[in-house]
Design goal:
The chain is mainly α and 173 residues long. It contains 4 helices and no strands. 88% of the residues lie in helices and 0% in strands.
Length: 173
């Protein structure tokens, strides 16, 4: 065996060893990056975050239905209240003095008398309770809907930040 052959064999062996080592290091780095990515995703709870943001539109749809039903109930209660108030106003407008003149001749006195009678009228008080309850319920349900929209916006902002962080951390190997 001559020295040139020996050198070629050594060079070939060195190249093969280098290629093998390079492949092993590449696989180790790739596995490490994949493991790190999975750990980061786990720490950031990307899966849970995704589930939550996907569920919000359905929650919004359901809450809109609840708001619609509450609004319908409120409109019925409001109608009953307006009817009771109209009945009182009609009685006030029809009242006359002994001389046959209107007892409450101007708008200001009629409105004042209406407010006084509303406090003591059984039908009006019966209509006021459901009206107030449904008004409060409608406001509460609308507030819940607005909270869901705010939650969706927050998830969108946080999702954008997480996506940016993950893309910055992504290594091309």
């Amino acid at each position: 065996m001559d020295i040139r052959q020996f050198m070629r064999d050594m060079e070939k062996s060195s190249k093969e060893t280098f290629e093998n080592m390079r492949e092993i290091v590449f696989e180790a780095v790739y596995d490490s990056v994949q493991f790190s990515r999975k750990e980061i995703e786990k720490q950031l709870d990307v899966e849970g975050f995704s589930r939550n943001i996907i569920a919000i539109p359905e929650k919004i749809r359901v809450q809109k239905e609840i708001c619609k039903q509450t609004r319908t109930t409120f409109e019925e209660a409001k109608s009953n209240l307006v009817n009771a108030e109209s009945m009182i106003a009609a009685v006030i407008a029809a009242e006359t003095t002994d001389a046959g003149k209107q007892k409450f001749s101007n708008d200001t006195t009629r409105r004042a008398e209406l407010e006084i009678r509303k406090k003591h009228n059984f039908e009006y008080q019966q209509a006021w309770g459901p009206y107030k309850e449904t008004l409060d319920e409608m406001d509460a349900e609308q507030f819940k809907l607005e909270q869901l929209y705010d939650e969706l916006k927050a998830y969108q902002v946080v999702g954008g930040v997480l996506a940016a962080r993950l893309s910055l951390m992504r290594l091309e190997v």
